[in-house]
Amino acid sequence: MKNRIAISGAGGKMGCALLNSIARLDWCELVAAIESPDSNLIGLDAGELLKNRNFGVTIQDSLDQAAEKIDVLIDFSAPEATLNNIEFCSSHSIPIVIGTTGFASSDEELIDVASKIIPICCSANYSAGINLCFELIERATEVLGKDADVEIIESHHRGKIDAPSGTALAMGEAIAAGLGRDLSDVGEYGRVGDVGPRDRESIGFSVVRAGNIIGEHTVMFAVDGEILEITHKASDREAFCAGALRAARWLIGRAPSLYSMRDVIANSDGTPQ
Fold it and tell me: What's the rounded Cα separation, in Å, for the pair 46 and 31?
């Protein structure tokens, strides 16, 4: 039996990429596609977003009509919509994979509460490569961090709304934790004018929004005499789709908890999705 997947944010860049991936896979099927109530996509067949396809699934503004058909929801939408979907999934015992970023701390608390009821996988980035980068960053922090000036540079397409990216912030959190610091105290988000000498404990962020850049992240550890850079560049959203779908398949049947993509990678056999 195929796993039945719903997509929230179906008309977005990641939503369309996920629809394209699902159309090519034999282990899953699309059973619901959701967009915001004011979207001009409401009422279209989801296949029209890909051209020359027909899913037989009409884009709706809520999950209500599909509740009994969904095995797992993948959500790449916006914080408010995602929180509403989490409430819905909690009420109907539906696992959810969250790729939305830009949550407030109070939102994260709500996600944590919901994870006591349903299994939730929440990651800033679902590519296998970027999650390997986190391991490399943590190791570099152990070896160089206390002596290094740490800078994080990220680039995305002109349409990305939040900044810095969720991935960049997650990198900063990991580095700060490894150094026994709090990112809310040491994060430095842009420098203008006479800012004085660099605070040795700060973690700097630089943001680029331009063109159709899918996603690039670099962490720089600069010590006297040498610089180590750890860089990840995404050339196609397929990398994120493969990870999100791998997480969705893995999450079905799991016990309620808050998981990350690193949990998925560490506790699965790596079977291609």
Answer: 10
- Measure the CA–CA gap between 171 and 239, rounded to whole angstroms: 19
Q: Residues in the chain with pLDDT < 50?
A: 270-273
- Name the 3-class secondary structure at 130: helix
Out of 13, 92, 157, 160, the active site residue is 160
List domains and CATH numbers for the chain. 3-122+237-266 (3.40.50.720), 128-234 (3.30.360.10)
Q: Identify the three-state secondary structure at position 233.
A: strand
77-163-36 Cα angle (round to 5): 20
Q: Give yes or no for a contact between 102 and 164, defined as CB atoms under 8 angstroms apart.
A: no
Which strand (E) or helix (H) includes residue 266?
A: helix 261-266
pTM for the whole structure: 0.83
> Known catalytic residue: 160?
yes
Catalytic residue among 69, 116, 156, 233: 156
Q: Is 13 a catalytic residue?
A: no
